[in-house]
Structure formats: C-alpha cells, structure tokens
Amino acid sequence: MLALQRRYGCYNSTRIDLAVGAGDEAVELMPNPFIIDTLNRSVVHLPPEGWQMLDRSLLGVEAEGRALKLRFWRSR
Predict the structure, then answer these.
(1) Containing structural domain, residue 29
(2) What is the pTM of this model?
(3) CA-based, 20 to 30 A from 41: which of 7, 34, 35, 68?
C-alpha cells in the first residue's frame, strides 16, 4: 500500500511511513480508522497499473510469485 501511495500520491501519512519503517515492531503501530478510511476512499482513482499492484499486495505475492511478509496488518 505504501508503494501505491508514494507512486500515485493517493494518500501521504507520516504515521504509515513510520509504521512501515519499523519492521517487526510495526504490528503495534496500526493506523487509526480515520487514516484507513481516507486511504480507502482515495484508492478509487488508481490507474490500471496501480490496481495490479494493489491486487498483488492484497494477495500476498510479488510480481515474481514470491510470498510477501505482510505482518503490518496482522492482528494480535
């Protein structure tokens, strides 16, 4: 999601940037509902390439087919 935000300017959030950069500790830094709702509303305007990136991210695979570590959104 952060790659989509940076590439297409969907939504910029210092809190999300810090959470992504926190590595394993990011699990504790879940963005608040307002941030998530704002991001969800802004994703509507992505170009086709952006939708493909989002699909890969949500499915947990990279373009090469390797599984991604999506620990940021894991619930405790």
Answers:
(1) 2-73
(2) 0.35
(3) 68
Residue 24 CB partners (closer than 8 Å, separation 6+): 71
Encoding tokens for residue 53? 């990136």
Q: Minimal CA–CA distance to 29: which of 37, 14, 19, 39?
A: 19
The single-letter code of the amino acid at 71 is R
Averaged pLDDT, 26-50? 73
CA–CA separation, 4 and 57 (whole Å): 10
Q: 57 or 8, which is more confident?
A: 57
Q: Where are the beta strands (DSSP E) in 1-76?
A: none
Let me know: does 47 contact 5? Beta carbons within 8 Å: no
Q: Measured between alpha carbons, how far is residue 75 from residues 2, 12, 29, 55, 60 in Å?
A: 19, 23, 11, 20, 16
Integer Cα distance of 62 and 22 in angstroms: 21
